[in-house]
Structures are given as structure tokens and as C-alpha cells.
Amino acid sequence: MDTPERNQIGTPKAKFEDSPVFNYINSLSPIKPVKSVHITQTFSSLSFASLPSVFTSPHVSAHKESRFLRRHNTSDPSKPESTLASGNKVSANEDAAQLYINSEELREDCVPGVSTGEDSVEPSSEHSKFVIELPRNLKYDCGSPDCDPTRCGTEAHCELEVADLSAPLVPYVQKTSEEGSSNDEGHLQIICQTVQRKEVTGCDWESLISDAADLLIFDSPNGTEAFKGLMQNSLDPVTRFCTSLAPQLTQNDVNDEQNVQVLDIVGSGGQLETEDPSSQYGEASQLERTEQMEGHLNHCMVSSQSEKEDNKVETPMQFNCKPAVLNLQRGLRRRCLDFEMAGARRKSLDNVSNSSSNMLSQSDEKITTNDKQLVPMKPGGESSRCILPGIGLHLNALAKTSKDYKIIKCESLAYDRQLSLPNSTADIHSPTGGQGPGHESFSSASSERDMDVAENGVQLAHDASQEPAFLANEEFNQNSPKKKRRRFEHAGETESCKRCNCKKSKCLKLYCECFAAGVYCIEPCSCQECFNKPIHEDTVLATRKQIESRNPLAFAPKVIRSSDSVPELGEESSKTPASARHKRGCNCKKSSCLKKYCECYQGGVGCSISCRCEGCKNAFGRKDGSFIGTEAELDEEEAEACEKSVAEKHQQKIEIQKNEEQRPDSALPTTPLRLSRQMVSLPFSSKNKPPRSSVFSIGGSSSGLYTSQKLGKPNILRPESKFERHSQTVPEDEMPEILQGDGSPSTGVKTASPNSKRVCPPNSDFGPSPGRRTGRKLILQSIPSFPSLTPQH
DNA sequence: GAGTTTGAAACT
DNA sequence: CAGTTTCAAACTC
């Protein structure tokens, strides 16, 4: 979509840098180096057009409204919205998802107005009412005890959010899954109420801010104090910086000091994130968290929205409209694009609604992931880069990777791209925190990250720090496209690293691997006239929608794993070793299904009845039903793998990876499958790129899936759908089945798909994590993500 | 690295 | 739905 905002993007940035204040700040803050970068990204992200309809799916809207209404309760009972609110409570997860979506929608709606530069904000659309500004929220999680117990609860995470449009400053506490946050809600509510009161009363922003400061918590103990210091003491370089920036940004628009303060907060948050590794994931995580925290959100939300609606007069909260502010906020959010995220979340939420607690915790983790992507992972300048590109579209897929799986290798690239994934992931992650000790490692980087994030904030931090560097290195190092590819292949080979070389498709067609995988193109890509970038988010989303409308499964994994899922196949399907089948089957004529031209082969699955290939010699299984030993072996291996404890699996994967690294020969993809498959030599060996896939498979989000699928054995990735997990809350180990049983949302999608043939749950492949999945499990995982888009259509 | 082959995706 | 074209990956040299 063409939003006016884009234009603004560049400007703000320049302003900041040019401004004396900026310089001053730079001199003061240690963060300098990162800052510049960070800011840039932020703006760029901001520039992104509002999310498309994706988020707007009808489903969401309904839920959203209900929630929003609630919010109003506090602020303005009289309003109709409030009425609604009273009515239903959606599960926290759902709410969160909805909120997220709404925010997106709101943006779109609001953006135009904003772009005009008008101060007055128009709630014109219903959406505006609901606007929640998760994205922009600055969130600092603090595990530190320092946090004010009363408000945050010792363990609870406090987050300060600024709504985009509504822009109220909403501090809310989040509970981390890990931490018992049973009490957190109470705290959160309190906080929210407090905020609301303030707003209502007179918008005592200062007090709010101070409160917020208290609330703000950094993951790192140190961070907390620092943050507080910032908030309270303008002396802090960061704070100063933010403060200084805010005025500039708002410039004319800003009338109230309050607004300025808000901005400051935001800005500080951003910077903080940048600097503080611990906070890296803050934004994304926050979003998710917010989503998860229904109750919290509701409470918090009330203030901002109610004010807007109630008062069209600009309240401090409304500063949203101001271009500068918007940009900032957006920037924060946009980093995490999510095509699928929204969908994924939705699904997950829907399913999981009940298990809010778990979800919440998970979400937190996931969020973290997002943050990573969004924020420069490392203080080091390089990290910033990674972030930029990434924001991840289809995080879903990646995100999906269950926490369970820890991937050894992650491809930083993928990671970046799919930032959004985390969101979805978050939902999905089992409460356990992914913990499974063993979670399988996926080969896919994204999955790893997700997992890491999910599992432990700490781990995440590590990964983030590491990964970014990794990415940066790769990106910088690679010169030619091909080289880049090769590198990726060799290095991680994970899907995450997908790169394309599109010249005419603008990376907006399925021809583009990146696009097909649901990830943004990044530096390694040698594509021309690429529109598959965060900057063109709107376009990308719109295109995706279009494609999905044409074929709901277009972004679903091509390889479906479980034989179960595909009864249609009948004998063959069951016969196939992998139990995985290509969604639609191939149509090879000259390659005999022995080359990667063949999608089945590429995916590491045998050809099935659905295939129209000629002279099929697919090593993984011929159309006629004959199988090759390798496949069988693979299956067995997979089964074994499943049996193994997660930990073991994880180790194995690691080992495998090592092995692979050591021996280039091994074709085995890094993906989790490898573990099981190690023994078998995959055809892929040629390039090492294992089936690309691996990485993303997680993707639950629709798009993300592809990769994994391609890999072929997608199983690995299967991250299984977090969604599924969430929904069922099934034990990690059991994930695979979940898919089957539940009727995961994904199914719905499947059915829709035109390709009725094998539509079965594309996701299935990934579904079960390597360990868990027995080999044949179906996985719907990916499906969920897709739906998001589809429904909207 | 350039050119060819291949088959999916897109189009008609 | 089938046929054709377009496209980019996979492959070869």
C-alpha cells in the first residue's frame, strides 16, 4: 500500500542525525555506533506501509472489537465499545492476537490521515477505536528484582507501550512464562488502571512516565536500573537523546510536553534495546507479549482508545497522528513484519485461548525473538544490519519452530527475514518453555532462534548476539549472488538463508524462493527490482493475499509429511518411506525425478499418485510405489529419532551438523531431519543446501513453511506448529499428534486450497519436531499461518 | 561465470 | 481445465 508514511521515512532520520541534539547524544552515549543504525532501521520500518489486510481478517476484527470494548470500560463506560467489552473475554492469547491485528489495521486506517500531517486524529474507522499499539511499545523485560514488586511483580515483565495512533502510554506488565506470573496480572491490571486514571484525569504524563519507568524492566538486572535511571534522570544520555529527538520529531505537532516525554520514552526504549543486548528482543517480544496478555491489554488499552474516541481533541495520547511519532512507533513495530504472524497468532490464539498462561509465557519468548530481529542484536554496529532487512515477514514459519527444537545452526539470514515468526512461535511454544531440553535442533536457523528465544530469554540473547554477527559477516562477505548462495549453503545450508536471484518477478511471485518462503529478501539475494522487502511490506502482503486467494496453499509447505494426512495417496503414500508427500506432486518429464528440478526429490520425498511425472525414478520413492532403500532408512531413522529424548536429539543434531560441516560431502541437510537421516545420503548433497528448508519449516506461518518443506524433510522443521501445540498444549513430545487431532486450524486452510489433491496439511512435514514426530505425523502447523491471509480475502 | 535445461508458476 | 508463456532454480560446461 502506498502510505504517505514512506516518504517520511527518510526525513526523520536525517533530521535526527543532523540535529545538534543528536550529535550531542552521540557524544554522550556509548551506544553511538549502534544508534545511528538502529534509528535508521526504525524509520525504515516505519516507512513500511501499513500492514495489509492480512491482519484485518474478519475473524480478528470480531475478537478485537470485543476486547477493545473492554478497555473502554474503564475510560468510558457509556461508549458502546465498553459494552461489548463487558461481554466477552477472549482468551488472553486470542485477545493478544487480535490486538495485534487491530493495531495493524489501525495503522492502515490511520496512517493516511497521519501522513497528511494533521494533528487531529480521526478515529474514523472502527479499527481506530481498537487500535492498540503493541508494536511501538517499548518493552523492557526485567527479570530483575529491582522492578517494583507492587507494580510489576518481581518476576513480571513490565512493558511500556505507546500506542501508535491512540498512542497512549501503556505500561503493562508481562509475565514471563518462566516466571510465575500468576500475580502479574493483578499487577498489570493495577498498572493499567493507574495509567488510565492518569490519562483520564488529566493525562498526567509525567507521573505515568515515572510509573512506566518503574514498570520498565530489563531482562538484565542491570538494565532495569539503568532504564529507570533513564526515565527518571534526564541526565542519562539515552534519555537525553530520546528527549531531544522527540521534539524534533514531533516538531510542530507536539504541543505538549507530555507528548514529548512519551516520545522520549519510546526513543529511549529503542536505543536501549539497541545497546542492551538483553533488550534486543524487546520489541517483538513485547508485541507478542502484549497479545498474550489479554487482560493486561484490555486494561491498558482502555485508556488510549477511550480517550481518542471520547475526545477527538488531541490528548497527549493522540500524538500518534504526528508523523514523527508515528514513524517512531512504526519503526518499532514494523521491524517485525509478519505476513503470517498475524494469521499464525490468530490461529494459535484461537486454539490456545484456553491455555493462556502457557501461551503467555511462550509468547514472551517469541516476542523476544522478534525483538532480536528488530533490534540490532549486538551493540556492535554490524548487528544492526541484520536487523534491518529482516524483519521478518513470515516469521510464522520460523517462529513455529517449536521451542523444543533448538536449532543448531540458524541461519541468521532467515532469522532476520522472518522476524515475525517469533510471534507465531510465541503462541505456539509450549508453556514448558520449550524447554525441552532437548528440543530438537532444527537445522533451520530461524527455528533455532525461535526456540532459543522461547526457551530462555537468556539463550535468546546469546543467539541473538551471535547470530547477528554471523549474518553480518555473511552478508558483508558475500560478493556475488552465487557466491553468496554457496556460502549459505555451505555454512548453514539452512533455509533461512534463502536467497533468490529474481530478475523479473520483483520477488513478488512464487518464483521467488524468498517470497515463496515467506521471507523478505536480504542482502545475499541478488534479485533485481526486489519488492520483497520490509519497505514494501504492503505490496508484499497484498501480493501474498492475491496469490493466496488464487491458491490458499500457495504458501503452504509443498511437502506434506504425514502419510496420515494424505489418505488420498493410499498405498503409495503409506509406502513412501518418509510418509511425506509433495503437496501437489511433480510434473517432471526429463529429470526422471532424480534432480532437484523435481520438487518431490528436492523435498526429499517420494513421488506419489498425485505426481504426473514421466519416467519417475525418484530415489525417495517412485510414483509407482517402489521405494528406494534410502527412504525406508530415513523413515526408520526418523522413528528412532522420535524415540530419542529431545536432548539426545538435540545433541545428535549438533553432532550431525558438525559432521556435515566437517564433511562437505554429506548432503544431509542441517535440518533436524538430518539427524534421523544422517545415515542416508540425501540427494541434496550436491549443494548442500539441504533442502532449504529446514530452517523455516517452522514457519508455521504460512509462508515460512516452504522452506522447510523444500528441504524435504521438512520434518525437521516442523516446528510444529507452535499453533498446534498451543492450542492443545500438548506436551512437546506429542506435538505431532496434535496436529492430527485437532483439527488444527490449519486444516481449514487446507480444505480451502484449490489443490484439493494433496492439500493435506502442508505443514505436516514440520509438524512434529524431529524428535517428537514419529516420522509420519502430519503436521498442520504451517497451515495456521496461511489461514490468516486467506480469510481476509 | 555464462549458458542451458528444467519444471513450477503464471497467464491466456 | 488445458495450453502456452514466463520465470528462476538447477544444472552443465
Automatic annotation (TrEMBL):
Residues 693-704 have a biased composition (Low complexity). It is found in: Nucleus. Residues 496-621 form the CRC domain. It comes from the Eukaryota. Residues 66-91, 269-289, 424-451, 646-793 are annotated as: Disordered. Residues 646-664 have a biased composition (Basic and acidic residues). InterPro entries: CRC, Tesmin/TSO1-like_CXC, TSO1-like. Transmembrane segments: none annotated. Keywords: Nucleus. It holds the Pfam family TCR. Residues 75-91, 743-756, 782-793 have a biased composition (Polar residues). One of its GO terms (molecular function) is DNA-binding transcription factor activity. One of its GO terms (cellular component) is nucleus. Belongs to the lin-54 family. This is CRC domain-containing protein TSO1 isoform X2. It comes from Prunus avium (Cherry).
